[in-house]
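Dear colleagues,

For the upcoming journal club I promised to circulate an example of a predicted protein-ligand complex. I picked one with arginine because it came up in last month's discussion. The inputs are reproduced below in full, followed by the predicted structure.
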Amino acid sequence: MWKGRFQKATAALLTQYGESISFDWRLYKHDIAGSVAHAKGLHHIGVLSAEELSLITEGLLSIGREIEAGEFEFKIELEDIHMNIEAALTERIGAAGAKLHTARSRNDQVATDVRLYCRDAVAETVGKLRSMQRALVACARRHPAAVVPGYTHLQRGQPVLFAHHLLAYVEMFDRDAARLADALGRIDVMPLGSGALAGSTVPLDREFVAKELGFPRVSQNSMDAVSDRDFIAELVFDLALVGAHLSRLSEDIILWASAEFGFITLSDAHTTGSSLMPQKKNPDIAEITRGKSGRLYGNLMSLLTTIKGLPMTYNRDLQEDKEPLFDSLDTVGIALEIFAEMVGEMEVNEGRTRAACGDPFLFATDIADYLVKKGTPFREAHEIVGGLTARSVETGVGFPDMDLDVYRGFSAAFEDDVFALFDIEAALAARTAIGAPSPEGVAAQLARWDGELGEG
Ligand code: ARG
C-alpha cells in the first residue's frame, strides 16, 4: 500500500508486531458499509463513474459475503481489515478498486468503522440490559410476598420485600441503559472525510455520505476527528459500571445461596459441583462475574492510559483501542445473557427469608417511630429503644415477648398497641412513601417496569 517510497520489505517481526487483522477483522461489515458510502460519495461528486461505482459496490458486497461465510483469507502482511478488503477488491476489479481510497485515509476510515461498530454494539447491549431487567422483574413476580431482612454493613437492618431488593438492581441496570443511550449521541458522529488529519483537496460532500451511513452529524474538526477516542473510553466506562452492578448482584447471590443464608436456590444448570467435596453446589456464574469486573476496569485503565499524552493527531498507539473495547463488549454481553438465564430460574426460599425476618431487632426502628408518633423527639426515642435493646440482649427476651411494664419502665408513652408493631406485613404496609417497600408501592413499581420493559 505504501511501496512507492520504500526500498526494503517490512521486517517479519514488525509484520507480526504491527498487525491488527487478528482482532479488527470484526469491523468488516462496518468497513464495507463505510467504503460503499464513500464510493457513492465519490460518484456523487464525479470522481467515480456509475460503472466504477457499481463494480466497487458489487466487489465489496461479495467480499462481505465471503467473510461472512468464513471463506475469505485474511493476510497478516496486509496488516488490518482496511487493507485486506481494499487489496482483495483491487485484485478482483482492477483499476476501479484502486480509486476507492481517493480522499480517504485509514485514519478517518478506522474512526468511522469503530463508530459504526459501537453504534450497533450499544443497541445490542441495551437489549441485553433490558432482558436482564425483565428477568429480575419476573423473579420478583414469582415471589411477590417474600419478605427478607434488608441489610446495612451486612447486619440485619429493617424488613423489606424481596421484590424490593431485586428492583434495586432493575434501577441500576436502567441507569446503565440510559448512560449507553446518552453515549450514543457522541458516538453517532461521522469522521469520514477528515482524511489523514487535514481533510482533502477533493471537494467531498460529507453530509451526503453521512446520510448514506445514517450518521445524524459530521465531525467539525478533522484533526480531532481522526484522533478522538473519547467515545470508546466512555463506552468502556459504561460497560465497567455494568460490571460493577453485576458484581454487586453476584455478591448478593453468593451470600444468599450459602447455607448460612439459604435464601435462594439456583438451578443445577447454573451451578457446578466440586471434584472433591460431593455435597457442594457452587454459584460459579456469580463468582466468575464478580471476578470479571477486574478485567472490565482494567480495559478502561488501559484505554485511558493509551490516550494520555498523545500529540495531535492520529498515532499508531490508537490501534490499542480495539482489544479493550471488544473485550468489554464481549464480557458484559455474555455476563448479561447468562445472568438473565440464571435469575430466570432462581427460586427464593420464602420460609428461610421469613424466618430471618423473625429477628425482633428488625423492628427496633419501628418502635422508635412509634414513640415519635406519640410525640417523643426522635433522638430521645432512639435512646429509649437502645435501652430496650440492651435489656433484650441481657435477658434474652425479644421485643414481642417483653411485658408492657418493662416498656413503660423506659417510657410512659408506651401503651398496649406497641405489640401491634411486630407484625411484618403491617410493618411493611406502613411504609407508604414513594420508593419505600410497602406491598402497594412495590406492586406499583412492578407495574411500572412491566410497562417500561414490555415483553421484549
Ligand atoms: N489498524 C490501524 C488502527 O487500528 C488503522 C489505522 C492505521 N493508520 C495508519 N496511519 N497507520 O489504528
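Two points we might discuss: The chain has 19 helices and six strands. The chain has three domains: 12-102, 107-204+213-354, 356-453.

See you all on Thursday,
B. R.
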